[in-house]
């Protein structure tokens, strides 16, 4: 039997819980430097209360500890993950990986973390300079990620690891996005980076690897051959290790400029994912870095009550009819000119309804 709160089908795929919006990196393609809201850490009691409600109501399939910031900076991270495990909630951690040493990794694994996503994003020394990393060189960072990944090529543990890469094909379009940020502009570039990292992780005498993954139609190298830089791609390296690629947009600078507002289009926000910021504020989606859609707080509104609020329901019903009703969403799906906005509105429908699903 399908459960629903108004127009929203339950469970929602992901609830993003921001444990902190403080970060030890300052990536040029991230809006961290433009974030105007106060920085802080979510109190452990609030995090556990959210977990308790999700465990009781089953309102979300997955709890992902990330909106902004670096969650491994939170002093109670392992305790919070353990609480999620105790409540039967699948938990996922998104991290830049710079603080993910063997000790913390073992603690998270024993606490029951289901999935760790390392936002590698920039695969070589030149692009790593875009990260604004403090206290770690690219060589040190690369060695750490490779060492971690090797441990996920085999083993009986349930925790899975995904290494996330960015591509920047939009720089090549008529509409320039981040002209100074080039990571993998072409499909050929992206394939080169993925193959390079695959070889760094797997080509070692002491690294066990299922022989079936080395050849055949489903081998990682054959999967890499089939990727396309304009879509999200997943390459399965082993049962516990995968690569994932996504397209770099103009997230960090989009809201700094005057745009022509969108009136039609599609976004899966709220229906697919929503967020709770470190201070308890709700957001419509995981990309609302500054709380632009905040109207309610977890401190005085339960998750179920929030999803039933009129403003939330109007947004969801609007997108189900390809209408954009909220001012923040209109700006998000808009662009600098009427022509660009029309292209982006049509593109949002094509991307979320077709490309992303295939």
Question: What can be said about this structure in brief?
Answer:
With 358 residues, the chain is an alpha/beta fold.
Task: Walk me through the structure.
The protein is α/β, with parallel strands linked by helices and 358 residues long. The chain contains eleven helices and eleven strands. The protein has helices at residues 44-57, 77-86, 102-111, 125-128, 138-150, 187-202, 220-225, 303-307, 310-320, 327-332, 338-355; strands spanning 3-5, 8-10, 12-17, 60-65, 90-95, 115-121, 160-167, 233-236, 241-247, 273-276, 282-283. Helix 2 packs parallel to helix 3 and helix 5 crosses helix 6 (187-202). The chain is globular, with a radius of gyration of 20 Å. The mean pLDDT is 88.
Task: Describe the structure using short key phrases.
9-stranded mixed β-sheet, globular, 358 residues, alpha/beta
């Amino acid at each position: 039997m399908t459960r629903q709160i108004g127009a929203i089908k339950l469970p929602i795929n992901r609830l993003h819980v921001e444990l902190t919006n403080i970060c030890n990196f300052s990536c040029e393609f991230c809006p961290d430097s433009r974030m105007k809201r106060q920085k802080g850490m979510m109190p452990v009691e609030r995090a556990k209360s959210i977990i308790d409600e999700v465990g009781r109501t089953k309102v979300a399939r997955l709890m992902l500890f990330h909106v902004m910031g670096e969650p491994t900076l939170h002093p109670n991270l392992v305790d919070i993950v353990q609480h999620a495990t105790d409540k039967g909630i699948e938990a996922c951690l998104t991290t830049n990986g710079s603080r993910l040493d063997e000790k913390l990794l073992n603690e998270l694994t024993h606490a029951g973390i289901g999935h760790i996503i390392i936002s590698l994003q920039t695969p070589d020394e030149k692009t790593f300079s875009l990260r604004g990393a403090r206290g770690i060189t690219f060589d040190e960072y690369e060695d750490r990620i490779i060492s971690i990944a090797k441990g996920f090529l085999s083993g009986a543990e349930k925790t899975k690891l995904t290494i996330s890469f960015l591509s920047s094909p939009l720089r090549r379009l008529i509409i320039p996005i981040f002209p100074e940020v080039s990571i993998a502009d072409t499909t050929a570039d992206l394939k080169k980076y993925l193959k390079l990292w695959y070889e760094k992780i797997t080509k070692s005498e002491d690294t066990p690897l299922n022989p079936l993954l080395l050849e055949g139609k489903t081998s990682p190298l054959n999967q890499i051959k089939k990727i396309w830089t304009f879509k999200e791609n997943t390459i399965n390296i082993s049962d516990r290790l995968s690569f994932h690629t996504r397209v770099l947009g103009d997230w960090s600078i989009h809201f700094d400029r005057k745009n022509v507002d969108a009136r039609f289009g599609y976004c899966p926000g709220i229906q697919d994912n929503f967020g709770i910021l470190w201070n308890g504020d709700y957001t419509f989606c995981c990309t609302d870095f500054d709380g632009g859609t905040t109207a309610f707080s977890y401190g005085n509104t339960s998750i179920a009550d929030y999803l039933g609020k009129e403003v939330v329901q109007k947004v969801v019903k609007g997108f189900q009819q390809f209408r954009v009703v909220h001012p923040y969403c209109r700006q998000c799906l808009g662009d600098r000119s009427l022509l660009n906005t029309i292209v982006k509105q049509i593109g949002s429908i094509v991307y979320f309804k077709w490309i992303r699903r295939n």
